[in-house]
């Protein structure tokens, strides 16, 4: 069910964690947060979309931490094994100040500007939900999700059991799904140089930079 976004949902404080802790093998091993797009690192595009929507921003990073720390507080996975997004979510839930924690990837420059408005509306409609996840109209977007901090013990257990798939762990909990069919490009992930070049070429062809691109 599409939440009613016409009325403002109840406000509650939210921490946000930008997931920038991966190996980025398809990007040639570069730290994707610092890969430039339209003259700015990807991490700065994401921050520009995210900061107005939340009360705290953290960056989950396992390298270049001093550089990231100039932008926001940095948290590590807690191990050197690069276990994937679930490990970043575990670190984020443990470090966040607020009970609700929003997770987004560092390579998604088109993050919706009304992401938290819609997520709050979804929680108002489904108050028993433990997590909220974005859906682009075709696929679930599990790395764009709002999690309650009470899920931390469950996540620690899942990681200890060897679980690495976000959707599988999400399936253990009460989940609200929020469609963004009206924003088809909001969840484009720039995973390799070809995707990055194509996205930037499209922005230039449209006469826009990413900060003005409709998401």
Structure, described:
This protein is of the alpha/beta class and 215 residues long. Helix content is 29%, strand content 20%. The strands form two sheets. The chain has a seven-stranded mixed sheet with strand order 5-4-1-6-8-7-9, with helices on both faces. A two-stranded antiparallel sheet has the order 2-3. A hairpin with a 2-residue loop joins strand 2 (36-37) and strand 3 (40-41). The radius of gyration is 16 Å and the shape is globular.
Overall radius of gyration: 16 Å
| Distance separating the two termini | 21 Å
Number of helices: 7
Share of helix, binned = 25-40%
Spans with pLDDT under 50 lasting ≥5 residues? 1-7
Q: Which H/E pattern describes the elements? A: EEEHEHEHEHEEHHEH
**What is the oligomer described by this structure?**
single chain
Taken as a percent bin, the fraction of beta residues is 15-25%
Number of strands: 9
Strand order of the largest sheet: 5-4-1-6-8-7-9
């Amino acid at each position: 069910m599409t939440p009613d976004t016409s009325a403002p949902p109840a406000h509650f404080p939210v921490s946000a964690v930008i997931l920038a802790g991966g190996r980025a093998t398809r990007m040639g091993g570069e730290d994707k947060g610092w890969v430039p797009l339209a003259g700015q690192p990807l991490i700065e595009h994401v921050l520009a979309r995210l900061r107005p929507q939340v009360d705290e921003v953290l960056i989950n990073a396992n390298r270049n931490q001093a550089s990231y720390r100039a932008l926001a507080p940095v948290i590590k996975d807690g191990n050197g094994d690069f276990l994937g997004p679930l490990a970043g979510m575990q670190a984020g839930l443990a470090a966040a100040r607020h009970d609700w924690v929003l997770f987004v990837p560092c390579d998604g420059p088109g993050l919706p500007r009304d992401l938290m408005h819609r997520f709050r509306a979804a929680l108002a409609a489904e108050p028993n939900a433990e997590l909220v996840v974005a859906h682009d109209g075709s696929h679930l977007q599990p790395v764009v999700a709002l999690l309650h901090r009470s899920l931390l013990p469950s996540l620690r257990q899942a990681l200890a059991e060897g679980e690495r798939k976000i959707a599988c762990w999400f399936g253990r909990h009460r989940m609200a799904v929020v469609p963004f069919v009206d924003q088809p490009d909001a969840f484009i992930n720039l995973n390799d140089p070809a995707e990055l070049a194509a996205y930037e070429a499209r922005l230039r062809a449209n006469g826009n930079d990413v900060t003005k691109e409709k998401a």
